[in-house]
Amino acid sequence: MAVEIKTQNALDRFVTKARDLFASEPDLEERWAKLSPIMAELLADSEVIEASTTWPNTVVDETRVHGRAENLLFYEDPDYGFVVSGLKKLPERSGNTTRVHDHGRIWTLYGVLDGRERMERYERTDDRSKPDYAEIRRSVNTVVGPGEIDLVKPFEIHTEVTIGEATIALIIRSEKPGEANQGRYNTETFAYSESHGPRQTPVEMFPRT
């Protein structure tokens, strides 16, 4: 009887290297800085790029008060808790944006596989004395494309803005969203609120044929 030999794919290789890093590097700043080049290998893998064309589109509805974005969930680590997610957005009207937000206590690496979008970062400028209120100003406004990775530390305020192109991205988080709230910011009224992060829909990164 023939024995089936399973070869590692790019996700398997990423998970192995990430688990080794999490086991050996307790300092969170160092851990997430060192994870970025490991993620770069995943973004550059031709099989991942090809497979991403077959991923389902994610539904982003941030216009409703209680709207939640959607991510594709490819992997959740049973020991260290980190997750590998995907985001596939259809070309939208240029200027469409997710709400300005932070990720709460979660560390995040956001890497673009295909397409381009504008990344904005914000700084908080008030004295934090008023509840449900946060004055912010934009501090970074840059366009990112395939292979570029953005490290978003806990509570850093940001958003992604479409420039009229379809976008496919991979997202590595320190834990699955939903266990901790993330902050929401209104750039006009400076209202602040908290809600759950994007819902996670389990799918296969490499769909079986």
Give the class from helix and strand content and strand pairing: alpha+beta
**Full CATH superfamily name:** Jelly Rolls
| Helix share bin | 10-25%
**Residue runs with pLDDT of under 50 for 5 or more positions:** 1-5, 62-66
Q: What count of helical segments does DSSP give?
A: 3
Mean pLDDT: 89
Strand content: 25-35%
**Strand order of the biggest β-sheet:** 7-4-9-2-1-12
Number of E-state strands: 12
Number of domains: 1
Quaternary state reads: single chain
Order of helices and strands: HHHEEEEEEEEEEEE
CATH class descriptor: Mainly Beta
Structural notes for this entry:
This protein is 19% helix and 33% strand. Residues 1-5 and 62-66 have low confidence and may be disordered. It contains 3 helices and 12 strands. The protein has helices at 10-24, 28-44, 46-52, and strands spanning 70-76, 83-89, 100-101, 108-114, 117-124, 136-144, 149-152, 157-162, 167-173, 182-185, 192-195, 199-202. It has a 6-stranded mixed β-sheet, covered by helices on one side. It has one domain (10-202): Jelly Rolls (Sandwich). With 209 residues, the chain is of the alpha+beta class.
